[in-house]
Amino acid sequence: MYDGKKLTNEVGAPIPDNENSITAGPRGPVVMQDVWLLEKMAHFNREVIPERRMHAKGWGAYGNLKVTGDISKYTKAKVLQPGTKTDLFIRFSTVAGERGAADAERDIRGVAVKFYTEEGNWDLVGNNTPTFFIRDVHNFSDLNRAVKRDPRTGMRSAQNNWDFWTLLPESFHQRTIVMSDRGIPASFRNMHFFGEHTFSFYNDKNERVWCKFHFLTQQGIKNLTNQEASEVCGRDRESHGRDLFESIERGDYPRWTMYVQIMTEEQAKNHYENPFDITKIWRHKEFPLIEVGVLELNRNPENYFAEVEQSAFTPAHVVPGIGFSPDRFLQGRLFAYGDAQRYRLGVNHNHIPVNRAKCEVNEYHRDGAMRVDGNYGRMPAYSPNSEGYWSPQPDAAEPPLDLEGAMYRFDPKDDPSDDNFRAGGELYRLMTEDKRKLLIENTAADIASVTDNVKYRHAVHCYLADKEYGERITKAMGLDLERVKELSKLDNNGLIEATLNP
User: Fold this and answer.
1) Cβ(213)–Cβ(130) under 8 Å?
2) Of 37, 153, 232, 366, whose CA is between 20 and 30 Å from 7?
3) Which CATH number belongs to the domain containing residue 224 in this structure?
């Protein structure tokens, strides 16, 4: 085993685990006493100024959500009641690229929606994939560094990408998606997007269910091959942004149908895998899509900087009837996103017009840079107080969540129900032959410059997901199939040990 520098915290104390958050029970929420996690995220949020650390290049538009279905038995959120129409702002983005990157690069696409509801802003932050590379927020800053520029060369590094991805087998499903034809959408209009995480709904009886959000494009799915994308990037680095802007300008308003999946608390307790793991999916046959309404984009911003660049989102912004879940990655994002915006835009970024709620706001925050309103004047600056200001609203509270188990750094790979290759294998088997061929070719091209030890890791993961998938990718990468088969018999630690060096 390579004996490199031992990890410590910011003042030299040893760190026992850098991948697994401290949770309340094996599937419970992350606890605040995970101080190394907070240190990692707080430092990560301040590493780059002024652009966003991820999702740096984005495009935005205004629109609305019209609710045509009825899910009132699941949630009391007014924004989701039948017949409601709610204004919104949306920001689409690439993830790994800087502000000057081309739009049509192989990458996932970020999608953040700000709903200006009568109960406050609801921010739904997700991507154009239903899953993600990592499931524990401890790996968040490391993922970013792996896909960003190498500190020595200043260039993107396929070696860094694939080394990191293949050391985390839970990333396999997302790897398969990104290397498939859907890795390069033709436009923002021609892709689905998802809330990714498991969230919760609760109704006026304080009954909770778990939910996932899906937005399926009405324009149809359309993707680009590597060759097509290369030609597009050579002609127009702003191809996605231009397409979105021009379609709205000519009145060809893009639309998505909004759906939710619902899982009861009892179903979650008995589910065959962790329903709060963002690297897993809920199969539609088991948890069918329930139609909610239609999201339409129909107005372009007047000023890119003021409205798109200064837009700020955090999944911590929910409204009564919508809540969180024990999803480890979501739990970390609840802190990280808001903290990043406070650093990037200031503590009063919620007063910027694009971020400002359209209902009365009484958060009782004071002072700070760019405080340009009355700062609440002479009202009491503390709570509780004898004048009755800033009184809480207990009716908005979520129902209690029962937790069980010890507080510890649980590794999901130790859970016997954890299968990181089931979904990726199912996706491969759903593909038509032409899509499988593209997947193999795209992967082989992307990983070509990477060392063989990392290639073997990926080949083994493909083989564990589907033998044909593994055999074809092994051949495309010029590897030894017999070695892949032998390596596939090892557990994850054994595979890593056997493939540490080129």
Assistant:
1) no
2) 153
3) 2.40.180.10
Domain assignment present for residue 45? The answer is: no
Q: What are the start-end ranges of the E strands in 404-458? A: 407-408
Q: Active-site residues: which are they? A: 55, 127
The answer to whether 27 touches 33, Cβ cutoff 8 Å, is: no
Q: Look at residue 396 and tell me if it is in a domain.
A: no
Are residues 453 and 349 both part of a single domain? no
Residue 154: inside a domain, yes or no? no
Distance separating alpha carbons of residues 398 and 323, to the nearest angstrom: 7
**Residue that the structure tokens 């397409």 belong to:** 243
Whether 293 and 218 share a structural domain = yes
Domain edge (last residue) among 313, 342, 358: 358
Any idea what the Cα angle at residue 110 is, between residues 106 and 115, rounded to 5°? 160
311 and 455 part of one domain: no
Structure-token pair, residue 346:
């200031």
Consecutive H or E run containing 210: strand 208-217
Q: How many domains does the chain have?
A: 2
Contact 357, 120 (CB under 8 A): yes
Q: What is the largest CA-CA distance in the chain?
A: 77
pTM value surpassing 0.85: yes
At 83-140, the pLDDT tens digits run: 999 999 999 999 988 888 999 999 999 999 999 999 999 999 999 999 999 999 999 9
Compute the distance between CA of residue 264 and CA of residue 268 in angstroms, rounded to an integer: 6
Q: Is residue 385 part of a domain?
A: no
* 13 CB burial (10 A radius; 0-12, 13-18, 19+): exposed
115: nearest Cα among 195, 192, 57 = 195
Asked whether 94 and 110 are in contact (CB, 8 A), the reply is yes
Domain that holds residue 331: 53-134+185-358
Q: Are the beta carbons of 476 and 436 closer than 8 angstroms?
A: no
